[in-house]
Design a protein that fits this description.
Order of helices and strands: HEEEEHEEEEE
Helix content: 10-25%
Largest sheet: 5 strands, antiparallel
Number of strands: 9
Radius of gyration: 19 Å
Structural class: alpha+beta
């Protein structure tokens, strides 16, 4: 009896973990339109920062995005700087960045910006950030993903 209880317990826990993401995916490929159909793979995305000269910092981000609908979607991207505030705030200086994904398109979007650091004290020098959080928007819709 204990063995069966344990198996039921494990099955329930795994269901609560995997079924919600499965239903989100099903919703995105069948009913979602616009930015609701955009999927972001944070674990495949990152930003790197490097010093170009004494006063200039370059930031380059690769964002793994997938349009799960059949229609083209154009939207703006900004970086959610809550997690890495001191680094990501620089990437938002030139935001929002416009991105267009065609229907069913999976794309590694590159966003690159150069930042003047002459007025900044104690700014970052170089580094890399993974597992990003972004905000996408179009018209009057907005999503943090």
């Amino acid at each position: 009896m204990k063995k069966h209880f344990f198996m039921v317990y494990v099955t329930v826990i795994l269901s609560f973990v995997f079924i919600p993401s499965f239903f989100v995916y099903i919703y995105q490929i069948t009913f979602a339109t616009g930015i609701e159909a955009i999927s972001f793979e944070a674990y495949k995305s990152d930003c790197t920062f490097e010093i170009l000269d004494e006063n200039t910092l370059q930031g380059a981000c690769l964002l793994a995005l997938h349009n799960l609908s059949k229609d083209d979607v154009t939207f703006q991207v900004e970086f959610n700087d809550a997690h890495y505030k001191e680094k990501m705030i620089f990437m938002n200086n030139n935001a929002p960045y416009e991105v267009t994904l065609h229907g069913q398109q999976k794309k590694l979007v590159k966003i690159k910006t150069v930042m003047d650091m002459t007025q900044m004290e104690g700014h970052i020098d170089e580094g890399k950030i993974s597992n990003l959080s972004i905000k996408i928007s179009a018209c009057h819709q907005q999503r943090r993903i």
